[in-house]
Write a structure and sequence with these properties.
alpha/beta, Oxidized Rhodanese, domain 1
Length: 117
């Protein structure tokens, strides 16, 4: 049986922590500067509009580039995209890599942008 993108996202969301925007902002605030927000959208989307404190690493390059931004396995990492699907898949990948404090923000980008700036 071939799995759809929706199937893969649902499987990932069963294995990871997903958070709404308010919960994500609370986690970020409590981390007191020791958090990383990763925008996993493609670079052209991030170039048009991104969060002030985020780093853009498209999902296809995540495994190769995340180590340059986060060497601490327990550091808070929040992933986001345009709606939550790619963020969830990215969070699962990060967990598989050994990062232990990863949360996917499953909300529309504009909602995330309105809270995080």
């Amino acid at each position: 049986m071939i799995k759809t993108a929706g199937d893969l996202i649902a499987e990932a969301q069963a294995r990871i922590s997903t958070v709404d925007v308010a919960s994500a902002h609370e986690l970020y605030t409590r981390a007191e500067g020791n958090a990383l927000i990763i925008d996993v959208r493609e670079s052209d989307s991030a170039a048009k509009s991104k969060l002030a404190d985020s780093v853009n690493i498209s999902r296809g390059l995540l495994e190769m580039k995340v180590g340059k931004h986060c060497a601490e396995p327990n550091r808070l990492i929040l992933t986001h995209c345009a709606g939550g699907g790619r963020a969830s898949l990215a969070a699962q990948t990060l967990q598989d890599m050994g990062y232990t404090n990863v949360h996917a923000i499953t909300a529309p980008f504009e909602d995330i942008k309105s809270v995080f700036g």
